[in-house]
TrEMBL record:
One of its GO terms (cellular component) is EMC complex. It is a multi-pass membrane protein. Keywords: Membrane, Transmembrane, Transmembrane helix. The keyword Membrane applies. Belongs to the EMC3 family. This is ER membrane protein complex subunit 3.
Length: 260
């Protein structure tokens, strides 16, 4: 049998619920602009640009190589043969590990400074200032397994699991204001805490750069399986076999535009 329904004081809405929403939102906006101020452009080496342009040129050659003779295409393909690849890549440095790269460690420290530290400080302050309040209720019934997640700081066995405490309301706002951040700050913003935490858990923030040796080897293997068929081999015969009509192409009386 369901217990009696709780009736919350209207002052909780103005002094607990809305302040937590505004504090969480403005902290995310401030985090976004601080991240932009601390953001530094990644330095791209000339060697990386050269490798990427060569790989793009090879991909274009595979897609459009049918429009050039086979001898010319094989001349370009020779760069990606195993012997030439070893010559071109023998001086390439090994890809640095993220844990030993000072720039990656600096970016990681900036991420902790702008993301983890504010979340801990603001969360602790909200838990201290607004502790013990029941803020709202979800519009659908929940099982008792949701009580530790939605009722942090309130240990009442008889309280329905659908009620949300002030501390849990803060975490719901942290992960639920994504649409507002996207609407105001744009799609790629630094205020979305859920996306940042997901990148940290999956390791996307410290992703390893691609290995040029493997990329060149894969490109050479892709070129080896290409069956070159020159699309313009009999274009002269096909053109001469057609009955070309040049009427109207060479006009005896050229038309002149009216000056007035």
């Amino acid at each position: 049998m369901a217990g009696p329904e709780l009736l919350l004081d209207s002052s909780i809405r103005f002094w607990v619920v809305l302040p937590i929403v505004f504090i969480t939102f403005f902290v995310g906006v401030i985090r976004h602009y601080i991240t932009q101020l601390l953001h530094t452009e990644k330095k791209v080496e000339l060697e990386q640009v050269t490798d990427s342009q060569v790989l793009i040129r090879s991909r274009i050659l595979r897609e459009n190589g049918k429009y050039i003779p086979r001898q010319v295409s094989r001349k370009f393909w020779g760069f990606f043969e195993p012997i030439n690849c070893c010559k071109n890549l023998k001086k390439k440095k090994k890809v640095p590990k993220p844990i030993s790269d000072p720039s990656m460690l600096t970016e990681m420290m900036k991420g902790n400074l702008t993301n983890v530290l504010p979340m801990i400080l603001i969360g602790g302050w909200i838990n201290w200032a607004f502790s013990g309040f029941v803020t709202t209720k979800v519009p659908f019934p929940l099982t008792l397994r949701f009580k530790p997640m939605l009722q942090r700081g309130i240990e009442l066995v008889s309280l329905d699991a659908s009620w949300v405490s002030s501390a849990s309301w803060y975490f719901l706002n942290v992960f639920g204001l994504r649409s507002m951040y996207n609407l105001i700050l744009g799609q790629d913003n630094a205020a979305d805490q859920s996306r940042i935490m997901q990148d940290q858990m999956t390791g996307a923030a410290m992703a390893m750069p691609p290995d040029p040796n493997k990329a060149f080897k894969a490109e050479w293997e892709a070129l080896e399986i290409v069956d070159h068929q020159w699309a313009l081999e009999s274009v002269e015969e096909e053109l001469m076999a057609k009955d070309l009509n040049f009427e109207g192409f060479f006009s005896k009386e050229p038309q002149m535009a009216a000056m007035f």
